[in-house]
Write the structure tokens for this entry.
Amino acid sequence: MSFEPCSRFRLMHEIPVMKYYTANTNFTVLDRSPLSISAGDTVSVGPRDKSWEGWIWVSTADGRGSYVPEDILEIDGAGAKVKTAFSARDLSVKNGEAVTALREVKGWLWCRKSDGEEGWLPEFVLRESGD
């Protein structure tokens, strides 16, 4: 079974079978206007994230930026071409809230809540629940 919420959210590493998780803490989204980049976009490249291996800072021409998985980029010096669309939309959850993980990318899970809202959660705020 494949889940394609929208072509702009396609990512590299789909979890073969949906996994179910429960939030083990509250996680509140601070960025209400997350970066979305499309395949073919050109971005400026900044520093690699020291805490999350494989993530690198990018900025778009309009000055918006976010960390993205480095392997979605073709890096050429201080710039890069985006190979795979990416949305940096995080998801807020409350302790004990159930989510379904649809994808995993380098320590972050693309999850869906029971109301259908989707976004990224860091793996450390979740515990696998089995169903």
Remarks:
- The mean pLDDT is 86.
- The two ends are 17 Å apart (CA to CA).
